[in-house]
Specification:
Elements: E1 3-7, E2 9-11, E3 19-29, H1 35-53, E4 57-59, E5 62-65, E6 68-72, E7 75-78, E8 80-93, E9 96-107, E10 120-125, E11 128-129, H2 143-158, E12 162-167, H3 174-179, H4 184-192, E13 196-204, E14 223-234, E15 240-251, H5 265-268, H6 271-291, E16 298-304, E17 307-310, E18 323-333, E19 339-355, E20 360-363, E21 378-381
Parallel strand pairs: 2-7, 10-12, 10-13, 11-13
Antiparallel strand pairs: 1-5, 1-8, 3-9, 4-7, 5-6, 8-9, 13-14, 14-15, 16-17, 16-21, 17-20, 18-19, 18-21, 19-20
Length: 382
């Protein structure tokens, strides 16, 4: 029998106003025989795929089955209003449950946000973990760098508004460098031509003691925590524009003395790996929501007479003929001698005449060529 699922929605972006039915497939691992939980997760994954393909994202909310609230599930911020989700079929493939759903998408124009069609480069350094002793259980010494790589891969696959620049083997110590009076995100962004810095911090990956049977044998796999804080810094101002902590846990299905390779498919296909992966997918939708409605601020990185070079290019979506407005940037120091970036608008508009993967160039013509436009000034797409 077909089951009908209705969702409580929050609406954000806009796409062409029309209703459509879309079929999608999602899957999830069955953990401890809990098929209902696997079904819920698989349906969420199918909906996530459809929404990302239509410029949407979601967070947690309420899930209704046959008019009855069953669990906390999805709260959508999407380009389309999901009116209903119909479960067409499901099947088991080993330890995985695969579902096919039909989703009724209906456009929503009540809230729209202009977009410049550009993607921002986000630099992601190696994840920070203060208590590295937690890596001993499972011999997960490589987890911080692998997590960065996996987060970058998820961002590359799913983000609507950004793409990653991963430095998986390099750590950034924000508190120390900020105390030293350096506007670290701005310095790093200038060095890497990125618009944002995303700092992952592993707060807890500890393992809870397993419950045991009367004879001392393990009754259930121990639960391993996963608590991740992500902080997104603006590359020009250095300010924090978004921060969120994610907390989950899952059975640790490996032997107590096993050496687990966090880069292996065995790890990522385990219950714990899949829980981590779900967190990373959710974080990408949250980052997209934070970047939505934010114009991409490019910077002038070189000037030669009347020609200027911007630090964005084809990988950001820049095309020949695109027009940008120029704003002059300057810094002021506060009472603690910390620099703050400010900008002043100008009447100057430039038209891109050459692009590479990472840069774009334009000519400043006429009387505007005499203006004091310098390296580090800002360009915004019209």
């Amino acid at each position: 029998m077909k089951q009908m699922f209705c969702l409580l929605l929050l609406l954000g972006l806009a796409i062409p106003c029309q209703a459509q039915w879309v079929e999608a497939t999602g899957d999830a691992k069955i953990v401890n025989g809990d098929t209902a939980k696997a079904r819920e997760t698989a349906i969420q994954n199918a909906i996530r795929l459809v929404l990302l393909q239509n410029g949407g994202n979601f967070q947690a909310s309420q899930f209704v089955s046959n008019g009855n609230l069953t669990t906390q599930a999805l709260e959508l911020s999407a380009a389309a209003n999901v009116k209903a989700v119909e479960l067409l079929n499901e099947r088991k493939d080993g330890e995985r449950l695969i579902v096919t759903v039909k989703i009724d998408l209906q456009a929503n124009d009540s809230q729209s946000c202009p977009t410049d069609g550009l993607k921002a480069a986000i630099l992601i350094p190696q994840a920070v973990l203060d208590d590295r002793g937690q890596l001993r259980y499972g011999r997960l010494e490589k987890l911080p760098s692998v997590l960065t790589q996996h987060l970058a891969s998820t961002l590359k696959q799913s983000s609507v508004f950004s793409f990653p620049l991963a430095l998986a083997e390099k750590q950034v110590d924000m508190p120390t460098l900020t105390t030293a009076g350096l506007r670290v995100p701005a310095i790093i962004s200038e060095m890497t031509d990125s618009q944002y810095l995303l700092l992952p911090e592993l707060l807890d990956i500890s393992v809870a003691p397993p419950t045991s049977a009367p004879l001392g044998l393990w009754q259930h796999d121990p639960l391993r925590q996963f608590q991740l804080r992500l902080t997104l810094y603006h590359g020009i101002s250095g300010e924090i524009i978004w921060q969120h902590e994610y907390t989950t846990s899952a059975p640790w299905e490996f032997d107590k003395t096993a050496m687990v390779n966090p880069a292996s498919s065995e790890f990522w296909q385990s219950a714990y790996g899949e829980s981590v992966n779900d967190v990373l997918k959710q974080s990408v939708t949250d980052i997209d929501q934070a970047l939505n409605c934010r114009p991409l601020l490019a910077q002038i990185i070189a000037r030669d007479n009347s020609r200027v070079v911007l630090n964005i290019g084809r990988q950001n979506g820049v095309q020949k003929g695109d027009k940008f407005k120029i704003a002059l940037q300057y810094n002021v120091n506060d009472q603690l001698n910390r620099p703050h970036a400010l900008a002043t608008a100008t009447p100057v508009t430039i038209t891109i005449d050459q692009t590479s993967e990472t840069t774009a160039t334009a000519l400043i013509g006429g009387e505007n060529a005499a203006l004091n436009i310098q390296v580090n000034d800002i360009a915004l797409k019209k």
